[in-house]
Specification:
Distance between the termini: 61 Å
Structural class: alpha+beta
Shape: globular
Radius of gyration: 22 Å
Helix content: 40-55%
Order of helices and strands: HHEEEEEHEEEHHHHHHEEEEHHHHHH
Number of helices: 15
Largest sheet: 5 strands, antiparallel
Strand order of the largest sheet: 1-2-3-7-6
Length: about 425
């Protein structure tokens, strides 16, 4: 069953499609009579179907030519599915334990077939709202980020390889422009798409729009986002793009992938953990005050950065004499010099992480798309209190990020703002 042009599939046509695609039908041992299909896409952009049979399962994801949560009034390129499939395969090559396998891609239908992450896998954000601890999360996500970012950078690749890859992903420009708008522009001006917990945060949203120092700093972060092609980044690495169990961590949905600044991925993940931390007071009750859980989140933030930095540097040391052309071994051939450039590189990456993480936090409070961590707090006043603390920290991190020298200082500052 080949299609000459795009059409959205429904449950019936999807089953027919699977039967005619060997790379999909084979996942069910060709036992196709008992397949069930369930549409589970609760995100902003796509249809997501879970297909289960007696002999196998998979997930089908189809990109629509518009933003699903808004409708056809906001068009969106279907080509994002192509870049998502390429990024999944590239990241899966370097971090196979933490990226679901892609079975099939259909460019005409903007359709990806991939491994179904079966229960008890859940979206990490939902687990954080429920107060579930994941003991391997920092270990796993630091492994994913260190490998995907190092191996797609000039620390490992030649400039020729790198520029070819950068050129291909430059075509994912619509997704980049969407990020530019919703993360770096809309929160800082009057926009029809912005919203917040009104009236409680009316003054806070206005303060963001009138903060010249904040706008100067976010302009610098936007410039880095647009101009710095460090590595193949996921581009949307928040806690809704990670599925977890106590033993497994899987990164999904890299449709915003492009060659950009490494700190955008690391910052997105850590920034969303910080949002989860500040949301906990809104989920506390008489049975569980969430204090112990908040300490686990802070430890996870600290461990994530420390493990990432350690693993990233270890990969650099392992491949320092390899084909990477950022620091040629003929020049950086003594331990003192290598340590010096690594220290500067990691320091810059840390400050980028803080700046991008802060920008992602701000946009989730006064921009177009919010997070369930806060939105699931039913009491508007309590939600606004939680959001205000997160917003206060984010503004501080964005404006003063260069003053911080380590993640322990960030955790200490989070505690101060909470109190």
């Amino acid at each position: 069953m080949a299609f000459s042009e795009f059409r959205p599939l429904d449950e019936k046509s999807l089953l027919e499609y699977i039967k005619f695609v060997p790379s999909l039908s084979s996942k069910f041992g060709d036992k196709l009579d008992d397949l069930t299909v369930k549409e589970v896409g609760d995100g902003n952009l796509n249809f997501v179907y879970i297909v289960v049979g007696s002999s196998g399962s998979l997930v089908i994801k189809q990109a629509l030519p518009y933003i699903r949560c808004i409708g056809e009034s906001w068009p969106m390129t279907k080509e994002r599915a192509y870049f998502e499939s390429v990024a999944l395969r590239e990241h899966g090559h370097w971090s196979p334990d933490h990226v679901p396998e892609v079975y099939h891609f259909d460019r005409t239908l903007s359709l990806i077939g991939m491994r179904y992450l079966e229960p008890p896998h859940i979206i990490l954000r939902k687990g954080l709202i429920a107060g579930v601890e994941y003991p391997l999360l920092a270990e796993h996500i630091s492994d994913y980020m260190s490998k995907t970012l190092f191996y797609t950078s000039l620390l490992f690749r030649s400039t020729t390889e790198h520029k070819h890859a950068v050129a291909e992903f430059c075509a994912n420009v619509e997704m980049c422009r969407l990020t530019e708008q919703v993360v770096f522009s809309d929160p800082y001006k009057v926009s029809q798409f912005n919203h917040w917990t009104s009236p409680y945060l009316d003054n806070d949203a206005e303060a963001v729009r009138n903060d010249n120092a904040l706008k100067a700093e976010v302009a610098e972060m936007k410039s880095k986002f647009c101009e710095r092609s460090q590595a193949l980044i996921h581009g949307d690495l928040h806690t809704g793009s990670v599925m977890v169990t106590h033993e497994s961590t899987q990164v999904i949905d890299p449709e915003f992938a492009f060659y950009g600044p490494m700190g955008f991925d690391v910052g997105a993940f850590i920034g969303n953990l910080i949002l989860a931390y500040f949301a906990q007071d809104g989920h506390a009750d008489g049975v569980n005050d969430r204090k112990k859980y908040k300490e686990w989140i802070l430890k996870t933030i600290e461990d994530t950065w420390n493990l990432f930095q350690k693993k990233f540097t270890a990969l650099w040391n392992e491949h320092k004499d390899g084909s990477g052309e950022a620091y040629l071994p003929a020049i950086y051939n003594n331990p003192e010099l290598l340590h010096l450039v690594q220290k500067k590189y990691i320091e810059d990456l840390f400050h980028d992480t803080l700046g991008f993480g802060a920008a992602k936090m701000i946009r989730r409070i006064v921009g177009v798309a919010h997070v369930a961590d806060f939105e699931s707090i039913s009491d508007d006043s309590k939600r606004a209190q939680c959001e205000r603390r997160a917003l206060e920290l984010a503004k501080l991190l964005l404006k003063e990020r260069r003053k911080f020298q380590g993640i322990a200082e960030i955790v200490s500052t989070i505690r101060q703002v909470q109190e």
